[in-house]
Amino acid sequence: MSKKNDVNKCPRVDIGGQAVMEGVMMRSPKHQAVTVRRADGTLVTKVEKLHLPGDKHPWMKKPFIRGTVSMITMLTSGMKTLEDSTKMLGIMDEEPTQFEKWLSEKLHKGIDKIVMFVAIVMAVILSVGLFIAIPAGIETLLKNAGMSAFGYTLLGGVVKILILIGYMAFCGSIPDVRRTFQYHGAEHKSVFCHEAQEPLTPANAMKYSCLHPRCGTAFLLIVFTISILLFLVLNVLMPISNYFLRLLFHLAMLPIVAGVSYEVLKGLAHSESKAAKLLRWPGLQMQRLTTREPDESMLECAIVSMNLALTGELPAHAPRTPEGWAILHSYAESEPGYVPRSETENTEIASEEDGSEG
Asked: Are the CB atoms for 207 and 200 separated by under 8 Å?
């Protein structure tokens, strides 16, 4: 791979994304676009203007604070984006069950909102259980067994990272999730292509790496590393023997860890020093668990979302679904300045094709 395609090349841009079910979400500073590919091969896409907490409350954009805000926003908006993608695919059009209807009537909420709320709660419980409760329990047992603060903190941190690696590896073994990891790779390749200021085409994007320094996977590893370093100090200064107090202490420190980790991620991603490249290498390697090589159809989804997140508008020529989503047949239809063929041109092309077959 040439220097131009080096995974460490990361100009200062504000484009990020998220893999969703059979598609990709891309987010620019002002807009967010989600594109999915339906079973019939069409690309269904939507664009919405972003209303971020920092736009209304500028203090939320301050260094160290913005990391915590970003973590909370990613959790809530990420689940909403996943919900949107399933609706756009049309896989939530089935008739609700009697229980779902009863629950919706009792809570006076749509079943989609109930499902999203339950999913968020379950995700939080799973995250706290796996990455905070279990390591905190191990640290407490080791401390009460007489191990030094340095020893039990380090081992507790190693357990966190091993659980993270095991969880990601398990998810990658599930076929549907593995396919979503391919869309994750498509997202990264398209971002790299945009950052290199090359035309956004599947062929151009394909040659780039699936490993990007600003990925959320790298952020998680940084969070765990920062938490180990922080608690190496705090556990010496404030040793806690009670498990529940230790659990609450870890939860209380989470906003601080997230804030510091966000600044570290930004700093490493935009630095080309040898130290920065060395420090971000583990995060890039961790992404091998959460990305896979995409095919061209997946790259098309990512490119459509990228184009529309940058322009903030759906293509005027594209037909709309009843929900207002645009229906495209090619990524080229999302390019700025795209002019659709007239009916006459389509007829002439069809005639030429029929003639060549004869």
From this structure: no
